[in-house]
Protein: Endopeptidase
Amino acid sequence: MSARLPLFPLGTVLLPGLVLPLEIFEERYRALVRELLAQPADEARSFGVVAIRRGRETGPALPAIHEVGCTAVLRRVQEHPDGRFSLITVGGQRFRIGTVDQHSAPYLVGEVEFLPDEVGDAEGARESVAPVQRLMRAYAERLAATGTVQISLPDLPDDPVALSYVIAAAAVTDLTERQGLLAAADAATRLRVERALLHREVGLLQKITTIGSSELRRVDPSPN
Structure:
């Protein structure tokens, strides 16, 4: 299914189910929020979040954007006296951009195709669930042991599609890797990539914590 969708370029990747707070201060996006609020309350009020490939979120120059994004569904809106908006949005449905209209509105509008969330290789997806869950728990524990980053690990679902998005949202990855997970063809592919990614990260974190413990053992605790 295709549709016209307002686009909001950001320096981050939105994933289905992920909560995304936004502060809206540019006039073009204030106009977008006002238009969304003018829609009937029983209609889905959403816009498309797309990660920036090159360029900036603000300013007159249009950034280069990735072609796969995710709808941001409005959950809460607070309007401030100066005209700004504070939004709470939740990631909805993935889409692929066909063409971009730069002229019909103050913001970008995309002709998009909504992407289905398919399992893909069902057997491969099922076989990946338990190893990915174990690796994610080990990853969270190793990350906490470094003392630098704490991640709030939610209950890990057994459904392959839901699990693939939870892992993509919870893992500390760069924009390129997270964009790749968003754009993956199906859950089986996404879980396979996440399994390799988590295995790599757990190994790196294990080396860091092992080296750190060795260095601490070398320190003489005696003040003399």
